[in-house]
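Note to self: keep these together.
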Amino acid sequence: MLDLILAILHHILAFGLVSILVAEAVLVRPGMTALDARRVARLDLGYGVSAVLLLIVGVGRLAFAAKGWAWYQDNPWFWAKMASFLAVGLLSVPPTLRYFAWVGLTKVEADRAPTEGEVAGVRRWLRAEQAGIVLILIFAAAMARYGHG
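Structure:
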């Protein structure tokens, strides 16, 4: 039963994380307002919390679920998935830092909206994150179907 619960939580958190990333991509657009900047910063906090919880549940699956660590440790698809997850996490840092800066600027000047250049830069990072998510999904499917290569 624990295996099922952890799998369900893992999937809910993964889909939640993707949903938040999509919402950020919708909000970060040319013409966004100071209010949009504050909203995307709050969303990004949820993105970070979801990622940490996803990692915790994933470790729980490694330690306590049916397949166990022995199945995962020699699985090249698992390691490709983990490398992609790490890459997406690293790619999320620049947008997060930009969101913090935007919020800080709105505290000084309430209607200070992000510039078009700032928006374009963040959008590039978000697209890279989205590409990384696609890789995670590909490697997860391969991992589930092909096991140890």
